[in-house]
């Protein structure tokens, strides 16, 4: 089983602790994060998705260790890398976390919906995908040229739910 699934995400279970770093230390960590992010983006661009997951994970670990807030873009990027690897559970987790941090991050909602649609078909997942795509369409950051593609996925999720409802016997 994936090591990712075996570890609890401490940010989900612990009360956030105040960061005790000074401005210079925070600036240094942000510089490190930017460097690692560039490396992760290079890995992703060259289709080294495992490398991208590793680099984005390093940033998340660095932020957590220093009690700094997680970055929604890093989580959404790692979600994209997981999607490319067809690892839908961690992709959905990262996308969901990114959307919680920044509800206007359309890519987070998009990747959450897409990852859910690739999982085993269940009614609750169809409903989650519908909600994710609807949230995506509400984002002010959504480029107009993506609206049609997202609407198509939303309609696909709705058709799936309708089919699931029709197949469910009445008690």
Give structural notes.
This protein is mainly alpha-helical. It has helices at 3-6, 10-13, 23-45, 49-65, 72-84, 88-101, 106-118, 123-138, 147-167.
Uncertain spans, ≥5 residues at pLDDT below 50? 1-15
Span between N and C termini?
37 Å
Number of strands: 0
Count of runs of 4 or more consecutive helical residues: 9
Helix content: over 70%
Question: What is the chains' assembly state?
Answer: single chain
Structural class: mainly alpha
Instruction: Determine the mean pLDDT.
Output: 90
**Judging from the principal axes of the Cα atoms, what is the shape?**
elongated
Percentage of β-strand residues: under 5%
Biggest β-sheet, characterized?
A: none
The ordered H/E elements are HHHHHHHHH
Radius of gyration: 18 Å
List keywords for this structure.
73% helix
Blueprint of the fold:
Blueprint: H1 3-6, H2 10-13, H3 23-45, H4 49-65, H5 72-84, H6 88-101, H7 106-118, H8 123-138, H9 147-167
Helix pairs in contact: 3-4, 4-5, 5-6, 5-7, 6-7, 7-8, 8-9
Care to give the gist of this entry?
The chain is mostly helical. The protein has helices at 3-6, 10-13, 23-45, 49-65, 72-84, 88-101, 106-118, 123-138, 147-167.
């Amino acid at each position: 089983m994936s090591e990712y699934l075996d570890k609890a995400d401490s940010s989900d279970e612990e009360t956030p602790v105040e960061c005790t770093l000074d401005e210079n230390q925070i600036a240094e960590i942000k510089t490190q994060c930017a460097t690692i992010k560039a490396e992760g983006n290079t890995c992703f661009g060259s289709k080294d998705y495992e490398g991208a997951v590793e680099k984005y994970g390093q940033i998340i670990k660095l932020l957590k260790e220093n009690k700094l807030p997680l970055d929604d873009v890093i989580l959404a990027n790692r979600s994209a890398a997981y999607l490319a690897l067809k690892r839908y559970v961690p992709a959905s987790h990262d996308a969901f976390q990114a959307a919680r941090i920044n509800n206007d991050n359309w890519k987070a909602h998009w990747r959450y919906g897409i990852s859910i649609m690739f999982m085993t078909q269940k009614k609750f997942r169809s409903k989650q995908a519908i909600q994710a795509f609807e949230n995506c369409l509400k984002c002010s950051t959504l480029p107009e040229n993506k609206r049609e593609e997202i609407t198509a996925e939303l309609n696909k999720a709705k058709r799936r739910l309708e089919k699931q409802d029709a197949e469910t016997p009445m008690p």
